[in-house]
Amino acid sequence: MFMSDSALDKVTTLEMIDRDYLTQLIRKAGYNNATVTSFIREAAGGKSHGGGSIFRYKLTYSENGSVAAPDSIVLKQSREISSQALDPLFARREADCYLHKLFKDINEKLYVPHSYYLAIRPELGQYWVWMEDLGEASFDIEWSPKVLEEMVRDIAELHKVWWGREEEMSGLPFLRRRAQAMYDGLWVERITQNCSSIENHPQAEKISKVFTFERCKMLMRLSQAENLIYPKLEALPQTLLHHDIWPPNLGRFSGKTVLIDWSYVGPGTPGADLSQTVALLLQMWDPKFDDEALLQALWSGLREDAGLPIQFDEVAAGYELAFCLRPAHALGGPVLGGILSGKGSMVGDSGLEGKLASAEAVLQRIERGVRRING
Predict the structure, then answer these.
(1) Do 324 and 369 form a contact (C-beta atoms < 8 A)?
(2) Global pTM value
(3) Per-residue pLDDT tens for 42-64?
(4) Which of 45, 158, 247, 262 is most buried when burial is the number of CB atoms within 10 A of its CB?
(5) Residues 3-18 as b or e (16 or more Cβ within 10 Å = b)
(6) From start to end of the chain, where are the E strands?
(7) What is 141-374's CATH topology?
(8) 7-133 is a CATH 3.30.200.20 domain
(9) Listed residue (239, 318, 244, 257) closest to 52, CA to CA
């Protein structure tokens, strides 16, 4: 186990973290003469959508030996969540990414916060990553489609760094295999139940205009169709994907795009992870969001910046096929469930009309993916 005999590893709760612990942690990170004399802990990062708590520790040092030591550091605590019941490595994956130095070759246009210390305690279901604090300003972004396009273009560096390294990726057991779906088989019954509940709903007429009988059949079929979809995805060029690209996981630091939260990282084909990005943006921003511009931005990063031998249609194919996995499962499961119950679901809360407009936009893209499957 990683540093199981360390005194640091004996601290297992926030309440046990004291000045001595933080001094040892900072010194182990290379600031050999620094001594923490006091600290303030505060919650950081806002609401976690994926199984983690984040805390910022503001540190005060003695005057001697602490010139270069960081003023603050971040602790990310990962936890298991029910939607990841089929992924036993989910909670520890980000810690394993740092342990295996997954990001060591990334630092040209893309920036991943570096780690100071890892506490990996599977017997407790506890995984801590002590990492660099980039500051709240790094994530205080004035979002627009143009800003997102620029960031997606920068993310092509991740694909470039891991291009042609399939054998190496296969030797990293913590990576999420067939990572696009997230929900394989988890919501089969829920999707079927949601679809069967439309007919007797008070708003059945409005809902059934979007979730038609044929579309419900499609969603139910796709909830169990991973073995139909994955071979087509895996026939496309492969590299490493983040699989959770959306505004809360993006920032700017030192002139580069920051990418955080690596709990879903795994091999896949470029474009595939943008399906979930767009599915979320259609709910948060605008059902008429221009996904073509986002694909073009990724294409420019892959071909013009990275010089990778991939065709635009291969990027588009990965994007469209992956809509039949995670976005389709979420749409038929919690999103449709939220529409039927009148409660908020996933992200976005724009009333029935807004929810149905977003669902229509997602369904149109799922149908493109189905045409790819059938074609």
Answers:
(1) yes
(2) 0.92
(3) 998 655 555 678 999 999 999 87
(4) 158
(5) eeeeebbebeeeeebe
(6) 36-43, 52-61, 72-78, 110-111, 115-121, 126-132, 239-241, 250-253, 256-259, 266-268
(7) Aminoglycoside 3'-phosphotransferase; Chain: A, domain 2 (3.90.1200)
(8) yes
(9) 244
